[in-house]
Amino acid sequence: MSRLWRRHGSWLAPTLFILPGILLFGVVIIFASLQTIWVSFHEWDGVGAMVWVGLDNYRQLIDDPQFFVSLKNNVIWLVMFMAAPPLGLALALMLNQPIAGMRIVKSLFFIPLVLASVTVGVVFTWVYDPTFGLLALIFNAFGATAPALLSDETFVTVAVVIAALWPQVAFCLVLFLAGLNNLNEELIGAGRVDGARGFAMLWNVILPQLREVSFIALAVTVIGALRSFDMVAVMTSGGPFGSSTVLAYQMYEQSIFSYRFGYGAAIATVLFVIMAGFIVWYLRTLLKVEEGNA
Amino acid sequence: MRLTDIQPDFAPSRRTFMIGAGGLMASAAILGRPALAQSKELTIISNIANAPQREVLQRLASEFEKASGTKVVINNMDHEAHKTAIRSYLVVGAPDICFWFSGNRMKAFVKRDLFDDISDLFAREKYQDVLDTSTSAVTVDGKQYGLPLGGLLWGLFYRKDVFAEKGWTAPATYDDLLSLGDKAKSAGMVPVSMGTKEMWPAAGWFDHMNLRINGLEKHMALMDGTMAYTDPALTPVFDKWEALIKAGLFTPNHTSSGWEQAAAALAQKKAAMMDLAGFVKYGFPPEEQDQIAFAPFPEIAPGLPRYEDFALNSVHVPKNAKNKEGARAFLAYLYQPENLAAYLAPEGAVPPRSDCPPSADPLVNAAVESLKSVKGTAQFYDRDTDPDMAQEGLKGFQEFMVKPERREQILTRLEATRKRVFKA
After folding, report:
1. Chain B interface includes A92 (CB < 8 A)
2. Which residues are within 8 A (CB) of B327 and not within 5 positions of it... i.e. 6 or more apart?
3. A182 domain residue, yes or no
């Protein structure tokens, strides 16, 4: 045993350690993804027999106005979520100062991260409530009537994204705060000697050192925007009349409420392709950055 | 960020959970007791949302346990989650008894051979004699597949004290409804409290208008997918509905609030009426529940017999149940008139048996009385039609209530869905 171990230990040990992870990843992710793609070529109600329909589900997607509403909403999510990294950075720069009591302020900014997103959704639903919400109180104070944001098909998605941005900004803030703590003091000192100050210091010395953190913040934000589901489910259930639905929610609705697992799987596959496209771009850029550093 | 977060397969994950939970229970049962006693166990999956009713079921279960020596295990599930879970647990890991909805929703499982034929229990206990019409809701091809439980009769609810104080009477016709709307508005109240966040209240309103204008037969044709959503028979329904919307009869911004908020507005005297069933009382504080009064949905087409939405819940024995005899014995016990009445009381539902002791709930008695003049019943939009159709329909009716000018567009969309779903 020990001889076997001595001879093969160098590759056996890592293999054994990785094996459970690989198995889990294989079953839960790879297998489930392939199965989803397979289901998307069928008509299936979740109970009965699966009927092969080829690309029929995808053809129906193209004719489905709801699909394009969802797609458009996903784009709105993506665009608005891009505000999270810069806002997070701005807050991090503001909070990263050695002032007494700053820790308490920092913790206040972390609060949305601690809350479950369902909680955030419920709280914002109250804020937006046109009769007793905070927003209504503010409008009433100025003698105006508050708009019912969650009932308005034009503003509903924007209102939901704003709620979702709150924890997302906090998440970016944490990433950037960690990044700011790891800055190279020598570089900053050298910059100061060269006369860099204020914005020039930020742009030429600080930001280049935060490049990797920014990259992670960006990736997390993009994926967060694409997989948005819980906020929509809690705040609007995709409504009013489907106007705030995103792809992830539509796939849930079609599979669970309409018993169209095949169609739901087709939506999932489309989302998967979009996401995969982004991940490929991300990994390629990441590799380039790492090569550049080496 | 993990990829699992974007994986859509909610159902399998629930199913896996169910299998896991079921397996765990099964192994516990095997380890915990001698093998022979296994058939003496009865499992029930309940979807009951209100706590007092759960307590009654638990009490009945322990009484049955003492009398029969069969151990009864009740697993409570969230009402909405249960709607999804039932499709997997009926196939793998079925309990001995489960709760569901009669009519089309039951038929879906009967067609797939997932519910047990309990005609023998019907014959043995002579249920036909005491059930009369509600038997049809659990009958497919002459065989019974479940026992009807509480029925919910839909209609308008209002506050006695408000109506007495203002000198109003419940509207008997469409014109009454419009004029009451004007009176309510000038009194600073919303005429009809409406919360469509969960969408179905809008579909209920459609049901009632359609039943009053086109009658039961045409309504069921629409539900069964044999009548088009673009059929000219529906034009007066949407014309009249649009007139009500334009007259400002419904709560503004109703898509922001759920039915509970709408019921609360009725209780707080901010609204004059509401279209719901007996469970409207959950929107009221207990001491004010005796103020609630019931009136049938107003007549629209003069002389048309009264057809109403009367939704019947039901209880079933899954085909894959292990202890089918025990299940029948328990159902017979639950279905004894006193037990059934006790079980239905917290729900505010109408007992299906004619020999149940009279209810202490005035709303139930009002519904029982009102049912006597009803010529025929549908269940409810999302219980009568295909679930896929229902989902689009619910959305469409909600949209119509906000944007009545999009009628054409909405109906064309619903018609396309009908063609797809019913392969018409």
Report:
1. no
2. B42, B96, B97, B116, B317, B321
3. yes
Chain B residues contacting A via beta carbons under 8 Å? 1, 3-12, 84, 87-88, 90-91, 112, 114, 196-199, 252-256, 387-388, 391-392, 395-396, 398-399, 402, 413, 420
Higher pLDDT, A146 or B301: B301
Please state the domain count of chain A: 1
Interface contact B12-A226, CB threshold 8 A: no
- Residue that the structure tokens 């098909």 belong to: A153
Kindly report the pTM of this predicted structure: 0.81
CB contact under 8 A, B6 and A275: yes
Considering A13-17, A227-231, B159-163, the range whose residues carry the highest mean pLDDT is B159-163
pLDDT 10s digits, A157-176: 999 999 999 999 999 999 99
Tens digits of per-residue pLDDT, A121-148?
A: 999 999 998 878 899 899 988 988 888 8
pLDDT value at B59 more than 80: yes
Residue A130 belongs to domain with CATH number: 1.10.3720.10
CATH number of B3-151+313-365: 3.40.190.10
Task: Using the predicted structure, report yes or no on whether residue A227 has a pLDDT greater than 60.
Answer: yes
Question: What residue spans define the domains of chain B?
Answer: 3-151+313-365, 153-310+375-421
Nearest-by-Cβ selection for B1 from A33, A223, A253: A223
Top residue of B2, B4, B7, B260 to mutate, by most chain A CBs within 10 Å, is B7
* The length of chain A, given as a count of residues: 294
* b/e sequence A138-168, b meaning 16+ C-beta within 10 Å: eeeeeeeebbbbbbbbebbbebbbbbbbbbb
For chain B, say whether A28 makes contact (Cβ under 8 Å). yes
Tell me whether residue A254 is in a domain.
Answer: yes
Please name the residue of chain B whose CA is at the shortest distance from the CA of residue A236.
B197
* pLDDT (mean) for B4-17: 35
Report pLDDT for A1. 60
Q: Of B200, B232, B196, B142, nearest to B385 (Cα)?
A: B200
For the record, the structure tokens of B359 come out as 């209810």
According to the model, what pLDDT value does residue B248 have?
94
Tell me the residue range of the domain where A171 lies.
Answer: 64-293
Which H, E and C letters describe B361-418, residue by residue? CHHHHHHHHHHCCCCEEECCHHHHCCHHHHHHHHHHHHHHHHCHHHHHHHHHHHHHHH
In a domain, A12, yes or no: no
- Establish whether domains B3-151+313-365 and B153-310+375-421 are of one fold: yes
In chain B, % helix, strand, coil (3-state, to 5) comes to: 55, 15, 30
A78 interface with B at CB cutoff 8 Å: no
In a domain, A284, yes or no: yes
Q: What is the pLDDT of residues B104-127, one digit of tens each?
A: 889 888 988 899 999 999 899 889
Contact B387 A240 (CB under 8 A): no
Q: Give CATH for domain B153-310+375-421.
A: 3.40.190.10
Closest CA in chain B for residue A249: B8
ipTM: 0.79
Contacts of A261 in chain B (CB under 8 A): 11
Whether B8 and A227 lie within 8 Å, measured CB to CB: no
Task: List CB contacts of A161: < 8 A, sequence separation 6 or more.
Answer: A76, A77, A80, A81
Number of CB pairs, chain A paired with chain B, less than 8 A apart = 104
Which residue is closest to A217 within chain B, CA to CA? B1
pLDDT of res. A265: 95
Distances (CA, A) of A38 to A249, A259, B58, B69: 20, 17, 44, 49
pLDDT of residue B39: 55
pLDDT at B169 exceeding the cut of 60 = yes
Cross-chain CB nearest to B8 (options A258, A259, A268): A268
pLDDT tier for residue A293 given thresholds of 50, 70 and 90: low
